[in-house]
Design a protein that fits this description.
It is a single chain. A six-stranded parallel sheet has the order 5-4-1-6-7-8, with helices on both faces. Strands 2-3 form a two-stranded antiparallel sheet. The longest helix has 15 residues. Helix 2 packs parallel to helix 7. Helices cover about 40% and strands about 15% of the residues. The protein contains seven helices and eight strands. It is α/β, with parallel strands linked by helices. The protein starts with a helix and ends with a helix. The mean pLDDT is about 95. Strand 6, helix 5 and strand 7 form a beta-alpha-beta unit. It has one domain: Rossmann fold.
Length: about 170
């Protein structure tokens, strides 16, 4: 298997799970049933900078809460949510966009991300992901979910690109 740096330099698509990657996996439920989550502003900056590296990004989430769509709209990235089978959706998305699976990084944290991650060329996880996810991850953030995982990823991608003179 090639070095992780070499594989990451070839990325054309990064796929994020939402809860547990962009959030700390907690939800605030008000008495009227409205749900809220907390996200890391540094991740928003990281996403904008990854765009500048010409890498597309998408959120694939099982969650149907409107907060997921609102976050994707603010970040100006694609979202597919309410998904039961992330692997099938990921494969279809890549086929439609013309991405080879080795050009894809999937960042997930929980067991429902496992199959999709196994189909991606690079597998990423926050530091507090489930043990089965950490066991298959090529890249593990020092940050926990919702605490700057994507910002950290951007810094590493930027360093890899600079090392290769791109």
């Amino acid at each position: 298997m090639t070095d992780i740096r070499e594989r990451m330099k070839k990325l054309k698509l990064i796929v994020y799970d939402f809860d547990g990657v962009m959030t700390d996996n907690r939800v605030i439920v008000s008495q009227d049933g409205t749900e809220s989550v907390v996200v890391h502003r540094g991740d928003g900056y990281g996403i904008s900078q990854i765009k500048d590296l010409s890498i597309e990004q998408v959120i694939i989430s099982t969650e149907t809460n409107p907060v997921v769509r609102r976050r994707a709209e603010k970040l100006k990235i694609d979202i597919i949510h309410g998904v039961a089978d992330k692997k099938s959706i990921l494969m279809e998305y890549c086929r439609n966009k013309g991405y080879a699976m080795e050009e894809v990084m999937f960042i997930g944290n929980d067991l429902n991300d496992y199959d999709a991650m196994m189909s991606a060329g690079v597998k990423g996880a926050p530091a507090d992901a489930e043990e089965e996810i950490l066991a298959i991850a090529d890249w593990i953030s020092k940050a926990k979910g919702g605490h700057g995982v994507i910002r950290e990823l951007y810094r590493e991608l930027q360093a890899y690109m600079e090392q290769s003179g791109e």
